Amino acid sequence: MRLVIALGGNALLKKGQRQEAQIQKQNIILAAKSIAQIASHHSLLITHGNGPQVGLLALQAESYPDVKPYPLDVLDAETEGMLGYQIAQQLKNVMPDREVVALITQVVVDKDDEAFQQPTKPIGPIYKLSDKNSLVERGWQLVAVGDGIRRVVPSPAPKRILELSAIQLLLDTAMIVVCAGGGGIPVVESEDHQIEGVAAVIDKDLTSAMLATELEADRLIILTDVDAVYQNWGEPNAAPLKQATASELRQYRFEVGNMGPKIDAACRFVEHSGGIAQIGALEDLAEILAVRKGTQIMAG
To answer: Structurally, how many domains does the chain consist of?
Structure first.
């Protein structure tokens, strides 16, 4: 089968973990080992989140006042290179007989997307409520997350992947492709076809769903830090959903900026392609593919 596997940013750098390179590397090693278990008979495309990583780069840039901070699209490119390098390297370490390539990916968005007026995409770490005033002084927009707060930035919808034909060519030659990191680098295209980056972070799962549809993938597998989609998440009667249709899931309410975009992406894929989407924990990938764990989503 052709599989598009979306690794969540929080699966690569878990909540509560220090944002250090060695910790991230160990998580990526575990991800590579999980992917290797199912890779032998499938065509694979790997995408990944970048929320914690791009937020850290932005915070580091703020600490050097003598230089104007680099814009978000450049930070997106930096995280694509950093995580793409680490993921490709570790995949090659566990699968030396497979060719793996990491591809910097530009994704066209609409410059008039309303997301630029209503930022919703969380990036960076979770801060204490006591830090709110100092963060607001930086010009950041914030959202409540549990007992803390987190920065949010614009997250326009992906419209077109500029490197799609290159990705198709690489997959057709049996390479494992790592691409569209962090949802891809957001760019706008002028009427005379000039490309320019914009300050935003595209939702990785929506780009992954678009890629899976365009590439006629059999499955879109979204891996995160929870073992399934839960009905009534956070409540005493919370229960995992083993299987659901897109229409059933669209009747439920899921947390914006967390499970909500994953559900939306999965539903879009199955509705447009007729394929199957699955959501679950990174370490359960083999069991998810075998439909023994996670949540399976179908059209209907």
So the answer is: 1
Name the most confidently modeled range: 5-14, 68-77, 279-288. 279-288
**Considering the entire predicted model, what is its pTM?**
0.90
> Catalytic one among 8, 9, 84, 275?
9
Active-site choice (8, 55, 204, 280): 204
Residue 236 near residue 186 (C-beta atoms within 8 A): no
Let me know if 10 is a catalytic residue.
yes
> Exposure string (b/e) for 27-37, b if CB count within 10 Å is 16 or more?
bbbebbbbbbe
**293 annotated active-site:** no
At 78-102, the pLDDT tens digits run 999 999 999 999 999 999 999 999 9
CA 143/CA 123 separation, integer angstroms? 11
The whole domain housing 227 covers 2-298
Looking at residue 193, which CATH number applies to its domain?
3.40.1160.10
- Active-site residue, selected from the candidate residues 10, 27, 55, 124: 10
Q: Which of 182, 262, 275, 294 is catalytic?
A: 262
For residue 71, give both structure tokens.
């814009």
Residue 242 annotated as catalytic: no
Each residue's pLDDT tens digit, 125-168: 788 999 899 888 888 899 998 889 988 989 999 999 999 999 99
